[in-house]
């Protein structure tokens, strides 16, 4: 059954944290930001780790694959868990447990132990599914695309911020506090792990599962399906071919982003002769586009949906993916920094918009198994990153690997035309979209009337008469 009292506006209420929907929105993006930061916190320090642990190019490739492989299974599981116990408890446990390997990687003394912790850290990448799930149940159809896109985009921003913050934190540990490089990178990860742990505690106390309460309360009131139906709905969602089409599509956008986050710093160091900090800042430009690009993908997804229905959302997804693939091929051919950097930014822009466009479609696939759909599609991003990682593990030129990925993404964009909806669902969603817009207008009118009444009252008081006069 459909949850009620979803927020019909995001930006006009953006700072109103008394609204549980807005407060949850801010907690979801910050929690995901923290997870993404921790997930790729070690990537910009890999040159230091490589020298200390004497890692070979093949071992670095396995570390790249390992960092995203665990997330596939974690995302599949966490989607089911959200439907069962709710996003609030799911996020809390993920953050608390996920902080342990983030801090624990500092204990690595060999390739094997480093790889083990790198794989375990990948589990916190499942935070994305909870983020999308939680915003989907908090926001109405007219703004759910931009709410999903913004929360995920600002979360993904952690992948860009970590590219320059971690080298700076490492420098503080080594230069400021006098620790050795071997100790510096380890302590830097401990700091990140502590932040993750504290965020988990805050998430439990500052959010709730849905606008009207937590899942346990809603089930007790008969306003939600029972837990025993969750698994059945999950399996039904897995039989929907559209879910697996979006699985592949998300692998072609988010999977590429994960790969770039893992290799960008090393790529610019080795191919453009930059130092650690400079390479980190250049690599950060890719992730920093999440500040607004993914949000634009969601906003345009909602706008295309208002004009052409659900098929409009799918068409917008095709546009983003197609230009992402073309831009990636262009970037792969750049051999000088002043050309590589702008092409990287354009490529990043379309990549983030494609991710936002994907999750402007996801909430409409199967509302009874939202966690299942969000989890499977999210896992597709990591599956794409694993496959892409094999290109960089094998001894081939990395620019050639980027070009091959660009060709694959361009071809995958045409799969968006396979995401179709029945006439009945199109009509239902148009009605829901219109109702949400009417509710938004009603609330704006109420605010305007309240402001007018306050103005008339103040004017009457200044003139020494009662408002009724």
- The end-to-end distance, rounded to whole angstroms, is 50 Å
- CATH-derived topology: Growth Hormone, Chain: A
Overall number of domains: 1
- The general outline is globular
- List the secondary-structure elements in sequence, H or E: HHHHHHHHHHHHHHHHH
What features would you describe in this structure?
This protein has 469 residues and is mainly alpha-helical. It has a single domain, classed as Growth Hormone, Chain: A, CATH 1.20.1250. It has helices spanning 20-39, 46-53, 57-85, 87-104, 111-121, 127-138, 144-176, 181-206, 215-220, 230-238, 241-272, 276-288, 293-332, 337-358, 370-393, 398-412, 423-462. Helix 12 (276-288) runs parallel beside helix 14 (337-358).
